[in-house]
Amino acid sequence: MLYNLLAPLAEDLRVFNLFRYLTFRSGGAILFAFFLTLVIGPGMIRWLKKLQRDGQPIRSDGPESHLLTKKGTPTMGGLMFLLSASITTLLWADLTNVYVWVVLFVTIGYGSIGFADDFLKLTKRNTKGLNGRFKLIGQALIGLIATVIVVAHQPAAIGTSVALPFFKDVLINLGFGFIIFGALVMMGASNAVNLTDGLDGLATVPVMITAACFALIAYLVGNQIFAEYLQLHFVPGSGELAVFCGALCGAGLGFLWFNAPPAMVFMGDTGSLSMGGALGAISVITKHELVLAIIGGLFVLETVSVIVQVLSFKTTGKRVFRMAPLHHHYEKKGLAEPTIVIRFWIIAAVLALIGLATLKLR
């Protein structure tokens, strides 16, 4: 909104020329989202505590310590994450850019599914929430609609193709199948972040790290000069997503203020599903879907641990891990929660650096 209102005035007042720069607006989005989250956070936590007298239902089959340390903590804190990132994007981004609206559509759509899931968990006082089938159907529909819009607005040469990391000219054209692929990327990213969100602050920082990486990727891919220099596939208009990624980072910093151990509020599915879906949508738009699997490798690792655990138990009757997802395995082994969280943050940072290396190693 600020860009649309103030950038045209730059010829009369040179100070407004700043709003033409993506870097300035992305930085502004980080700071604005951070302070907005700090402002709305305390009031929202009080409201959530009043709404949820007993807090989030705790799994009876989970780590025993959670029944003591996390009981009574309210959930749905992802609302402040979601509101802050969305409001900031509307304020700092170019609202004529279709990709901004696509990402907001996915973010709010997946956040609504997560909100319904959290609400049912609270009202029914169990950990099941929304029926898994309905959740997946909703995610699939949103992902399919978003991918169709993205393909319709991208150059025909790349619209339905998947780019391979480390290879400068390789594009695999999936045709109509790309629409399904794009939806699966958004669904996969959304549910992977959701599985990772099990300890105080565990998912928040990796989401911020991934968003920061994709802010850079979106900026480079959306700039023809940089894209050609780095031999990336140029996606006109995608640079504007750097503003959304900045908003995501700022909102994440603000949320971490309240979510740091011991957490005053949990993100819940409201936050994890929406943030994961947003990252998936950005990767589809920037043609870096496979790079997301590297940068967000921690989310992949957590998801794979669940898949391995389920397959192993169903086929052999034995469990590979003491408990899945992976972070609970280390809790069962006796590691302190802050130790697990910080070590997983380190893993996320290392994987992000490896993912960014794909921009140059071609």
Describe the structure in brief.
The protein is mainly α. It has helices spanning 2-6, 22-51, 66-69, 78-92, 98-124, 132-152, 177-196, 204-221, 224-229, 241-259, 268-285, 289-295, 297-316, 326-332, 337-357, and strands spanning 161-163, 171-173. A hairpin with a 7-residue loop joins strand 1 (161-163) and strand 2.
Radius of gyration: 20 Å
How many strand units?
A: 2
What is the number of independent domains?
1
| Mean of residue pLDDT values | 89
Described by the principal axes of the CA atoms, the overall outline is: globular
**Strand percent estimate:** under 5%
What's the story with the biggest beta sheet? 2 strands, antiparallel
Number of helices: 15
- Termini, distance in Å? 38 Å
Poorly predicted runs of 5 or more residues: none
Structural class: mainly alpha
If strands are numbered along the chain, what order do they take across the biggest sheet?
1-2
Q: What fraction, in percent, of the residue positions are helical?
A: 55-70%
Order of helices and strands: HHHHHHEEHHHHHHHHH
